[in-house]
Please model this.
Amino acid sequence: MRLAKFFAVRVAPISNSKTQASTMIPRLARRSQSRGLATYTKMRPVRIRAITMDVTGTLVSFRGSLETHYLGSAEKCGVNIETLQKPIDKAFHQAYKEVSHRFPCFGHDLITGKEWWKYCVQRSLELAVGNSNITEAQSEKVFQRIYSVFGSQVAYERFDDAIPFLRWAHRNRISCGLLSNADDRYGALTYCLLIFRVGFGY
Model:
């Protein structure tokens, strides 16, 4: 702002003289470019007070594979998985897309999170195994087993640098916000995997 006023005051009196203006403006421009950093307004660095991050993929990762959890659970519930109509990973992604389109945001206020995952898991089994190879009772048992597994520590593991990072943030009085679009079971899961290990509460 001060530089703009400086140009206006110095250039205005010679606006009628094209020769003087043409020689003065480049000189003023060169002078402004050579201005030292010490003449600018000082800005104090702002201390970081909080860091927010997603839980899955940042601090915690999935353990095992879809084949291990889904087909393993189906086999233990008596479902024949020897001949699949579609690989389970492709079946899951198709089912996930279909259910997300039907019930966006994991059901939001239309259905509960558990109901959303029930649709997704059972649809995945239908696509992979086939309706004729799984009964309704078996489908229900498989879902309950898978839902229980993903609500425990069995299906998750911490990244090696998760705990050191959280302890560093705690020492430096930086609040950490852990975010997730998963169901409400993630609160207890996060506490067991991360908060309890670090040694401070929510």
The chain has three domains: 2-39, 50-54+159-198, 64-153. Helices lie at 2-11, 18-33, 66-76, 88-102, 113-129, 136-149, 162-171, 186-198. Residues 64-153 form a domain with the DNA polymerase; domain 1 fold (CATH 1.10.150.720).
